[in-house]
């Protein structure tokens, strides 16, 4: 496998010199994200995210299995990130690179360990049957910012996904297909999103959403995951450069603004997609979701 | 049923890429090549070919490995490998979406997805400007069990509309995938199920008609076979469009 082509010394110096003069190669401001395009597939739970030239596709699938014996009341949720040579010839099948390990660990921390998904809601019969939810992250085009793009795609796909409805009578479980009963959305407790900061020039320059060339020059990276209420889910720092505590606080402030903006975009796209699917306005009647508030009981 | 749809070069990073939809499957392919090859895979006088097929959900299974092997053998005969000695041509095919009936088909069956993969592979190699000896077109043919007794072969069955039909054939009759080169010669024939030699020959002729038939350019035949279209004509349109785009700088026309 060829190695990832490294930037030449001239290219590195050029990027750094430009950054010292407050210019980014693609003309963005230092705290600007690239243009985000989000589209959903015809099926539920497929989200295609394009962040600049980076493109990530996440597909959620579900099946019924037995829960783990030590977690009888929880469903199973796994995130699979396997890079293919499609993203870059440097990625070899079956041999995870450092980038792949980092991505899967970060997604694990950001989405799974922050308990964004209520896995208890995936349990059907305690200890016997539960839903196993699987998220496949496919990186189609790689131009840096994989963590941010994958996180957006994953959260959008989870919010878009509908699991089949089930009914339980004693020990007997009936799983209804999409044609029989309107499928049910997942219960997500919050929607964490990642924002990556890259540091240059001994920590003096911080960039949001670096592209691949900038990532190769950067000296340190800070990934902040938070939801739109400003609750920090995790902070990860990579690279040798020490980062000042005040700079970290500043990161969370910037991240909050970005996360709120991203969350709004996802929300908007989801609403557009729901409108597209809701032909004839029958969705409200078809929904098998339990009403949250107690309806007044007549009589 | 929807005609196969192909887009060239949707991705920026690889040397060539293509998306292709057929039989309800959507596949994105990317090719990198000729690139550096590992010492153990190096062939002194030709290019090594690596095909990766990645399913929509889950990790690859023996089923994907088998498809990869079929594709590698097929493509080695299509690509002019002697033009790229001691290099690697690396093709990745990612299945993006499968028809809703995909899960009801017998799980071992790899044939319904194969034509879409072959056609994607061809379009991808074309987009990546890899030198090829000929064109390639593949199609799925379903032969029902009661073929000849009132039932006809189904060429390119639509899994959304005739899903149960396809499923019945997959369980009871024979499924065949044929690929033809530019001269109309069969370069691949994969079959499974229960069928006789007459069924196979009939299926092969039907597939040849769809893959390389140019006869439906005349208006009479068009009416008779209105629903059928020729894969080769679609390919020619694709190549024409690509050549026009690439040759824009010449300022002709």
Tally of structural domains of chain A: 1
Low-confidence stretches of chain B: 216-227
Overall outline of chain A:
elongated
Q: How much is the average pLDDT of chain B?
A: 83
Please tally the β strands of chain A and state the result. Answer: 14
Q: What is the number of helical segments of chain B per DSSP (H or I, 4+ residues)?
A: 6
The oligomeric status of these chains comes to heterodimer
CATH class of chain B: Alpha Beta
Which strand-content bin applies to the residues of chain A? Answer: 25-35%
Overall mean pLDDT of chain A stands at 90
CATH superfamily of chain A: GHMP Kinase, N-terminal domain
Please compute the radius of gyration of chain B using only Cα atoms: 18 Å
Radius of gyration of chain A: 21 Å
**Category by helix and strand content of chain A:** alpha+beta
Question: Quick one: overall form of chain B?
Answer: globular
Return the string of H and E elements of chain B: EEEEHEHEEHEEHHH
Describe this protein's structure.
- The complex is a heterodimer of chains A (299) and B (253).
- By secondary structure, chain A is α+β, with helices and mostly antiparallel strands.
- Chain A has a single domain (34-269), classed as GHMP Kinase, N-terminal domain (Ribosomal Protein S5, domain 2), CATH 3.30.230.70.
- Chain A is built from six helices and 14 strands.
- Chain A has helices at residues 9-20, 98-112, 146-160, 212-217, 245-277, 283-286, and strands at residues 36-40, 46-51, 54-65, 76-81, 123-125, 129-141, 162-163, 166-169, 172-175, 184-185, 193-200, 205-208, 220-226, 232-238.
- In chain A, the strands form four sheets. In chain A, strands 1, 2, 3, 4, 5 and 6 form a six-stranded mixed β-sheet that branches. Chain A has a four-stranded antiparallel β-sheet with strand order 12-11-13-14, with helices on both faces. In chain A, strands 7-10 form a two-stranded antiparallel sheet.
- In chain A, a hairpin with a 4-residue loop joins strand 11 (193-200) and strand 12.
- Chain A is elongated, with a radius of gyration of 21 Å.
- The mean pLDDT of chain A is 90.
- Chain B is of the alpha+beta class and 253 residues long.
- Chain B has a five-stranded mixed β-sheet, with helices on one face. In chain B, strands 7-6-8-9 form a four-stranded antiparallel β-sheet, with helices on both faces.
- In chain B, a hairpin with a 4-residue loop joins strand 8 and strand 9 (186-193).
- The longest helix of chain B is centred in the first third of the chain and has 17 residues, at 62-78.
- Classes of the chains: A alpha+beta (299), B alpha+beta (253).
- The interface between A and B is medium-sized, with 28 and 23 residues.
